[in-house]
Amino acid sequence: MVTQASPEELTERLRDAITRLNRRLRQERPVGDLTVTQLSALTSLRIGGALTPRELSEAERVQPPTMTKIVAKLEERGLISRTPHPTDGRQVLLSPSEQGLAVLEDYQRVRDEWLAGKLAGFTAQERDTVARAAALLERLARD
Amino acid sequence: MVTQASPEELTERLRDAITRLNRRLRQERPVGDLTVTQLSALTSLRIGGALTPRELSEAERVQPPTMTKIVAKLEERGLISRTPHPTDGRQVLLSPSEQGLAVLEDYQRVRDEWLAGKLAGFTAQERDTVARAAALLERLARD
DNA sequence: CACACTTATTAGCTTAGCTAATAAGCCTGG
DNA sequence: CCAGGCTTATTAGCTAAGCTAATAAGTGTG
After folding, report:
1. Are A37 and A90 in a shared domain?
2. Which stretches within chain A are classed as H helix?
3. Which tens digit of pLDDT belongs to each residue from B67-113?
4. Which of B8, B16, B47, B111 is best to mutate for the A interface (most A CBs within 10 A)?
5. Which residues make Cβ contacts (< 8 Å) with residue A90, sequence separation at least 6?
6. Suppose B131 and one of A3, A7, A53, B5 were both cysteines; which one would form an S-S bond, judging by CB atoms 3.0 to 4.6 Å apart?
7. Is the CB of B25 less than 7 A from some atom of nucleic acid strand D?
8. Residues B77, B33: one domain?
9. A78: left (phi over 0), alpha (psi -120 to 50) or beta
10. Is the dihedral of CA B54, B57, B63, B69 positive or negative?
């Protein structure tokens, strides 16, 4: 127990930090490359396997029509493929294509350089704090 | 030193957590109310005092034309006022209006309820982790 | 004092998000 | 067994948030 911020201050500071860092992350996107949103959706598909658009929209906390657009962009680039649902004619199953997986590999190695570099500049203890906080923030975002 | 994630994993998890939480925060905005972006800019003006558009755009990590739009929205609502720069005819000084400050007060009390509520559900130790991480994330975002 | 630089804005684009409406398929109760 | 209500996905159309390029106005210096 080191810090002593009031709950209000903590809320405000956290919101501000998230907002700014999100912008900063977005700026790092190389031109012509995947947006953060697209990358996140593709990652969800890699982790979750074949998902329907609805499932994917829930995972990404986005409305279904929004996901339709994101999926369309990923499909244009051949990064995901769609197969009919085995039992439900309405639904579709989305999966990363070979190329999609390859792109994710590249990203994991090459991209996030900026963020990775920043984190590398932290002490081991600071990285530990961030790692623990990341888990907590994921819990927050999940609801 | 509790967690043992690789740097790559940490980078990816942090980016994902930030992205998702940012979306989640955006969803909490009451209809007809300030967007997160507008709120953030207004807060910067409260903290920084009278700033020029350029200074504000730098504080918010946004290009000047983007800030022009945000400022226009805030001005429409009478939340900021602009005064000529005392010595430089090109520049403008932006400050929160009385009403702008009042709105910020309201926000600080009423808004962020969702986030504050979530944080309240954390243990003191978890809140401490988040507080420390927030400071680190701000440092990251600042560059 | 002309010319280069800085500041702010305008114009015009993309992406990301939303709601409302529509079309297609599923399923159940009479 | 099929009519009508639900679910899923998409389309249409909107706003906000971001960008770059171009422009207009003002500053300041060689």
Report:
1. yes
2. 7-27, 36-48, 53-59, 64-76, 98-110, 113-120, 124-142
3. 999 999 999 999 999 999 999 999 999 999 999 999 988 876 655 67
4. B16
5. none
6. A3
7. no
8. yes
9. left
10. negative
Task: Answer whether residue B9 is part of any domain.
Answer: no
Please answer whether residues B18 and A138 qualify as being in contact, where contact means their C-beta atoms are separated by less than 8 angstroms. Answer: no
Pair B50, B83 in one domain: yes
Say whether both B119 and B60 belong to one domain: no
CA A140 → C1' D23, Å? Answer: 46
* Number of structural domains chain A divides into: 2
Q: How far is CA A22 from CA A68, B25, B46, B55, B105, in A?
A: 23, 12, 22, 20, 25
Q: According to the model, what pLDDT value does residue B76 have?
A: 93
Range of the domain at A101: 27-109
| Amino acid identity for residue A72 in this structure | A
**What is the three-class DSSP state of B94?**
strand
